[in-house]
Inverse folding.
């Protein structure tokens, strides 16, 4: 791909960092879903709705603030949370709910 | 939301873990985009295409394998990479390219 060996070496170095970060992200995502699965089970057990718009609003504001501190686009931080929450809700909807009687 | 104080406390504990994980994720994403921005600049400088399907194939296979180890849905790991790569390509396309002459 890159004919210049200097460029190829620099690309390889950057990609090694990206791969390390991705591995860490996969393990963090696994842990995050372990937590949200427990939240989902608790909510199903106690007849609480899967989504919680008030909590999500607080999360969005906080992640946007953290993104600014980290020099990450706050719009992207919000997209990230939306992406994760869609998956979490998909998990929660799998839990059988106690019939409302 | 949860009337039972035990349930509310358990939810609060789980959410504190989720919030810690999300903060870490934001800082990791910021670092990942610092790397990909440098990759993007390098590619633009040396007239290399922004997307790299061969590299992406290797990344997908690796992340699916790591996901299995972490007990995360491999489909989700692949969705995560797609989500990130779409953002990376959006960044790369912002870099001015040397005209092909």
């Amino acid at each position: 791909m890159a004919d210049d060996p200097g460029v190829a070496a620099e690309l390889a170095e950057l990609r090694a960092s990206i791969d390390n970060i991705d591995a860490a992200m996969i393990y963090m995502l696994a842990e995050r879903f372990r937590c949200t699965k427990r939240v989902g089970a608790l909510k199903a057990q106690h007849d609480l709705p899967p989504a919680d718009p008030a909590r999500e609003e607080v999360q969005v504001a906080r992640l946007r603030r953290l993104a600014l501190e980290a020099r990450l686009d706050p719009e992207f931080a919000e997209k990230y949370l939306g992406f994760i929450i869609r998956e979490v809700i998909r998990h929660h909807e799998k839990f059988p709910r106690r019939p409302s009687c």
Q: What stands out?
A: Chain A has a mean pLDDT of 89. Chain A has one domain: 5-92.
